Amino acid sequence: MSYRLTKVVSVHGCSCKLSQYQLSSLLDKACFTQGYNENVLAGAWENSSVVKIADNLAVLNTLDFFTPLVDEPEIQGRIAGSNVTSDIYTLGITDIASFLTVMAYPENMPDELAVGMLKGLGDFCREMNIPIVGGHTIRNPWPIIGGAATGIGPIDKIVYTRGAQPGDRLFLTKPLGIAAAMAAYRLRKEEIEDKELLSTIPTDIVETAINKAIQGMTSSNKLAAEVMQKIAIHAATDITGFGLKGHLTNMAKLGNVDIVINNLYVIPGAPELSELFGYPLLTGEAKETAGGILMAVSPEHSDDLQSEFDKQKMSYCEVGHVTQGNGKVTIINNPKITVAEP
Amino acid sequence: MSVETLNVKGKMCPMPVALTKRKLAEMQPKQLLIIIGEGELEFDNIQRWLNNNAYKIVAASKDNAEFKITVETKP
């Protein structure tokens, strides 16, 4: 097919998100972060909102959409489904009661691509047993896909981004490096002359990076949420458009602690590709899309958490720890690099 | 010292870095390259790549969406 989803946008996936600084400034100016009533248990800066509707029962809402990262529409739809639902699963809630789609595309984009994106999104939601109950579709110069999800769960099982405590150990469930791998994906499809720029990295490494990135983005974080229901997790956040450091800064500030990262868990080939493209992977600032969940857990529960990850055959890696402090995140110089299994 | 210009406006990431890399490889030592482009990500990525690869950035400025980076080729 000649129409390429990734070719008609200039930023891809979560890279189209505003920076935390820009978003914070907008919300403050619009007074969006003021005046919550006592039933709002979490609002802006949480991965999804949490509103109490009865004793020990809350409704969680999230909305997420972005530009395409891949040219294959069904894969793009799956990535969108994974990314939206992750915002609920990250709070440790496994029941998503409904899903509304958000889609936009230009007039010259073939309808079959729009159908493909919806099909991928629908298949993902069906596999997670989530009903799609409606949505909204508009014309727009850039294709966009995503949606709004509504979760329901017991208040005492919800894990927030706040709550990390000094001494906690940090575990991440998906490797980093999506942006670099997907940049290689796009470059690989360019004219031969441009593709030559990838020649310093063996083809099999590039292929492995791309496949691992797509596998990660299309994998649901639901299993991680199920684990979080069983183990006492102090705090959690998914790692997406603000990058590892951005999301951890949020966790550190909300918990009034410092965070030290001494081990970067990465997609095979991502460090080499990041260096080639000038991406800030090794400083934890590279943007991720549909990334894993980072959990802060006490040392006493760390073994149980790892046993549960192993039981579920999940990928994971210990990446750092929490110390006393006031919101600072440090990625140590020359951190250990742990490369995920291909 | 001769000066060359590379326009990467409208190029999608990672092409601005890739084209900068190729252009610098073609140039003679101790020349100046002015890279003109757009987008915050590209502005940061190009400078990071230049720093990682020990290039000397002579000047870098941004005016709304458009940026200009002046870099010296290696001796």
Give your account of this protein's structure.
The complex is a heterodimer of chains A (342) and B (75). Chain A folds into 2 domains: 5-157, PurM-like, N-terminal domain (60s Ribosomal Protein L30, Chain: A); 169-339, PurM-like C-terminal domain (Phosphoribosyl-aminoimidazole Synthetase, Chain A, domain 2), CATH 3.90.650. In chain A, 35% of the residues lie in helices and 27% in strands. Chain A has helices at residues 20-29, 73-89, 111-127, 178-188, 192-195, 203-218, 222-230, 243-255, 270-277, 299-311; strands spanning 40-42, 49-54, 57-66, 96-105, 132-139, 144-153, 169-172, 233-238, 257-266, 293-297, 317-324, 329-339. Chain A has a 6-stranded mixed sheet with strand order 1-2-3-6-4-5. A 6-stranded mixed sheet of chain A has the order 8-10-7-11-9-12. Chain A is globular, with a radius of gyration of 19 Å. With 75 residues, chain B is α+β, with helices and mostly antiparallel strands. Chain B has one domain (3-72): 2-Layer Sandwich (Translation Initiation Factor IF3). Chain B is built from 2 helices and 4 strands. Chains A and B meet through helix 4 and helix 9 of A and helix 1 and helix 2 of B.
Q: Please report the first level of CATH classification, the CATH class of chain B.
A: Alpha Beta
One letter per element, helices H and strands E, the order of chain B comes to EHEHEE
Question: What is the rounded Rg of chain B?
Answer: 11 Å
Query: At CATH's second level, what is the architecture of the largest domain in chain A?
Result: Alpha-Beta Complex
Count of alpha/pi helices of chain B? 2
Mean pLDDT of chain A comes to 94
Beta percentage of chain B is 35-45%
Average of the residue pLDDT scores of chain B: 90
The oligomeric state of the chains shown is heterodimer
Structural domains of chain A: how many: 2
Helix content of chain A: 25-40%
Low-confidence regions of chain B: none
- How many domains of chain B, as an integer? 1
CATH superfamily of chain B: TusA-like domain
